[in-house]
Design brief:
- The protein has 9 helices and 15 strands.
- By secondary structure, the protein is of the alpha/beta class.
- The strands form 3 sheets. Strands 2-1-3-4-5 form a 5-stranded parallel beta sheet, sandwiched between helices.
- Helix 2 packs parallel to helix 3 (60-68), helix 5 (108-149) runs parallel beside helix 6 and helix 8 (332-343) packs antiparallel against helix 9.
- The chain starts with a strand and ends with a strand.
């Protein structure tokens, strides 16, 4: 049974609406002023509120604004009961959030029809809200599954710390690192285009394939060869038009050489030096189209000697493409590098501090894209 709340300071109209709507089979509650009406609305969460426009102290317009600003009343339909009939008055009511109007004097057949229409909209809104909650719950489960596949932090002989915060929409980030042998450590991070399950599934597939080394005829010690094999396997025409960017590196522990290749991915940032105020900043990136775009795409390798006191940061663009609604300035890559240099000297909690700083820049709003960040400490 639908709940209807009637708010009116005119007892005669209040009683009329209560009786007639009850005869129609509705559960009707009444309030004689705006303050009481708002309190009852919060307690009852009615499907429909019929509220007089002109009342002492709190007018129907003010009641409407407060009701529409209450999250738990988001599906409640709000009708203004009024003798005001001008276009400007109705515009004022609509701007305040009113869903419909009932004119005085009340014509009962019109009242019944408008109430039925309002309750249909309420039911549709509730159904949509329920479906939205189910979808969000499923996305949260999928995000937790992706998180469960990611590797645990590595402590020795090289330390790798990670920070992964799935976006509210579920993105397509994943990363991994594993020893190819006792000297060679493979590290990569990829970001699939788009959001949702369609982005997450290819990302998980790549992770599983590389972890199990299931792709035949691939040299995992040569990053460009890995990217070429992935590009052949994951062409977007066969992957729901999804492509991904990736940074892939192999570190030789014995020689301190890093061999790497990238495919449309942001550069890895290498910070070197003991003095936090005088760090050497290097961007490690090679030319290469995102994986899946073109079958004949070429990928190249680059080598870098890792000096002492070096930390490597690998990330997706979700960590720096941050633009809060009230700020017209995007954080950007340069801004993010500045944050990395600020906390790079710390032995622990570096990534937590970086994350908190980015969150603060984003006004603590949920991220629109996955936040994926690795810190590789070579010493």
């Amino acid at each position: 049974m639908f709940k209807i709340l009637v708010i009116d300071d005119d007892v005669a109209i209040l009683e009329l609406l209560k009786r007639t709507l009850k005869k129609q089979g509705y559960d009707v509650s009444v309030a004689t002023n705006g303050e009481e009406g708002i309190e009852q609305a919060k307690q009852l969460c009615p499907a429909l509120i019929i509220c007089d426009w002109i009342m002492p102290r709190l007018t129907g317009i003010e009641v409407c604004r407060q009701v529409k600003a209450t999250p738990e009343l988001s599906t409640t339909q709000f009708f203004l009961l009024t003798s005001l009939g001008s276009v400007s008055d109705r515009v004022t009511g609509l701007d305040a959030g009113a869903d419909d109007f009932i004119s005085k004097p009340i014509e009962m057949n019109e009242l019944y029809a408008r109430v039925r229409a309002g309750l249909r909209l309420h039911q549709l809104s509730q159904d949509l809200q329920t479906q939205k909650q189910l979808i969000e719950a499923e996305l949260a489960e999928a995000a937790e599954y992706v998180r469960s596949l990611l590797p645990e932090p590595l402590m020795e002989p090289i330390r790798i710390d990670t920070k992964f915060i799935p976006s509210r929409q579920l993105g397509g980030d994943s990363f991994d690192y594993f020893w190819l042998d006792s000297d060679h450590l493979s590290i990569y991070l990829l970001d699939t285009s788009g959001h949702g399950l369609k982005a997450a599934l290819p990302s998980v597939s790549v992770l599983n394939l590389l972890r199990s080394r299931a792709i035949p005829n691939i040299n995992y010690y040569q990053p460009s060869n890995v990217l070429k094999a992935l590009n052949t396997t994951f062409q977007m025409t066969y992957q729901n038009d999804k492509y991904f960017t990736i940074w892939y590196g192999v570190y030789d522990f014995s020689t301190r050489k890093l061999l790497y290749s990238s495919a449309g991915h942001p550069p890895a940032i290498l910070l070197t030096g003991k003095d936090p105020k005088n760090l050497k900043i290097e961007m490690l990136k090679t030319r290469g189209m995102p994986v899946g775009m073109f079958l004949d795409a070429e990928y190249i390798d680059a080598t870098h000697d890792i000096a002492e006191f070096s930390n490597l940061y690998i990330f997706s663009d979700g960590v720096y493409e941050i633009q809060p609604p009230e700020n017209n300035t995007m954080l950007g890559l340069d801004g993010f590098i500045s944050i990395l240099t600020e906390y790079n000297h710390l032995q622990s909690d570096t990534l937590e501090l970086v994350l908190n700083t980015v969150k603060k820049y984003n006004s603590n709003n949920p991220f629109d894209d996955d936040f994926s960040l690795l810190k590789v400490s070579f010493d």
